[in-house]
Write a structure and sequence with these properties.
mainly alpha, Hypothetical Protein Ta1238, Chain: A, two-stranded antiparallel ribbon, 6 helices, 3% strand, CblAdoTrfase-like, transferase, ATP binding
Length: 194
């Protein structure tokens, strides 16, 4: 991590390989590269969410999370390197508890819908789950190759993004939300029609 990129197009990946942070080269479909890519996609999705009108506290939290995800990507790019701090997981736990405490208890399943910002938060939640699966797969393939904090961070983050989607629907900053969008199951309503 001691050097910065000075050239973006190196053509060294034309053979289907890519360089890790420690200088080793692996195939672009390597599980480590998959995990790094999913974390990068998650960070990019949060960047998209940050383009939306957001409550100030949510905006500050998301920017902090982007920095932590960059730390996580750096950690994944250098096997055996620790960059994501355990305190980052604790910070997500605290944010999750604080935002969840202000919400009404869920009575039913909700759809990933409502305001544009809430919907983007739901997309980010699903990308976080995929990134978590990729990190778990990497850890299974390379036992001890991923620190527990990496898995824990992604797990907590997907939960937090679900809660933030509910917060953003209630914030209703684009005038298209106001509440959760509930799943309408015919079975749950007692209907016998298909």
């Amino acid at each position: 991590m001691g050097h910065r990129l000075t050239q973006i197009s190196t053509r060294t990946g034309d053979d289907g390989s890519t360089g890790l942070g420690d200088g080793t080269r692996v195939a672009k479909d390597h599980l480590r590269v998959q995990a790094m890519g999913d974390v990068d996609e998650l960070n990019s999705t949060l960047g998209l969410l940050l383009c939306e009108p957001l409550p100030d506290a949510v905006r500050v939290l998301l920017v902090e999370i982007q920095h932590e995800l960059f730390n996580l990507g750096g950690e994944l790019s250098i096997p055996g390197y620790a960059l994501l701090k355990d305190e980052a997981v604790a910070a997500l736990d605290a944010a999750l508890a604080a935002h969840n405490a202000a919400l009404p208890r869920l009575q039913e399943f909700i759809l990933p819908a409502g305001t544009r910002s809430a919907s983007i938060a739901h997309v980010a939640r699903t990308v976080a789950r995929r990134a978590e699966r990729a990190v778990v797969a990497l850890d299974h393939a390379e036992p001890g190759g991923v620190r527990p904090a990496a898995r824990q961070y992604l797990n907590r983050l997907s939960d937090l993004l679900f809660v933030l989607a509910r917060v953003l629907n209630r914030a209703n900053l684009d005038g298209l939300g106001g509440d959760d969008v509930y799943w309408q199951s015919p079975k749950l309503r007692g209907s016998t029609s298909p």
